[in-house]
Design goal:
The protein is mainly α. It has helices spanning 53-60, 69-104, 111-127, 133-143, 145-175, 189-206, and strands at 9-13, 35-39. The protein has a two-stranded antiparallel sheet.
Length: 208
């Protein structure tokens, strides 16, 4: 809360959509309040780093082209453009995969394979807690039984969808004879080459 002083008390309208989960009333038997009273126990001052040459060299390395603040701004802008392009690429490929699945391909993923993918994703989740399973379980417990079950169900669903996408993409790549590095593909290599192939096929159809 910007502008508040230490030990200052203030009142806010109660709004679950705009306020963090810790502010919410969790006892269903109680009527929801219209206001909440808060007190600023401690004040934190945000100190932004100075992006001088030494700091940029530490962040990006000696060989980086980012040498000053103007370079940094351009780098951030370029990164945002690339992220947007990647998001649009992934969306276009996802739509194509869904069309293929709906019109001409049925994929049945064995439950054992989905379970293995699910285990890998749970292990990756545990890594976010330093590989500590106990901390991960504590985090899930704080979510509550219903929310944690939904959270884990969503992970399992995503596991199946990810495998579906993998097998459909592999089949499409074979059918369209797209040359990709199957052992160690580069980031979004398959998506990029598939999209380029689809654009090429689309242009061919437009020719008289």
């Amino acid at each position: 809360f910007v502008g508040k002083k230490k030990d200052e008390e203030f009142i806010l309208p109660y709004d679950e959509k705009k306020q963090p989960h810790s502010f919410h009333l969790h006892k269903e038997e109680l009527a929801k309040p219209t206001q909440i009273k808060l007190k600023a126990i401690d004040i934190k001052k945000i100190v932004y780093p100075t992006f001088d040459e030494a700091m940029l060299q530490k962040l990006f390395g000696n060989e980086s082209t980012v040498k000053n603040e103007a370079d940094l701004v351009n780098f951030i802008k370029q990164t945002l453009v690339e992220q947007k392009a990647e998001a649009e690429l992934v969306k276009a490929v996802e739509e194509y995969i869904q069309t293929v699945k709906k019109e001409s391909m049925e994929v049945a993923i064995p439950a054992t394979m989905i379970n293995e993918e699910y285990k890998v994703r749970i292990q990756n989740l545990a890594q976010r807690f330093g590989g500590d399973q106990t901390k991960m379980q504590e985090y899930l417990a704080k979510m509550g039984e219903e929310q944690s079950k939904k959270f884990l169900d969503d992970i399992k669903k995503a596991s199946g969808e990810s495998l579906e996408k993998f097998f459909i993409l592999r089949q499409v790549v074979d059918e369209l004879k797209i040359d990709v590095n199957r052992e160690k593909p580069e980031k979004l290599e398959i998506e990029h080459k598939l999209y380029a192939k689809l654009i090429e096929e689309k242009k061919k159809k437009k020719k008289p």
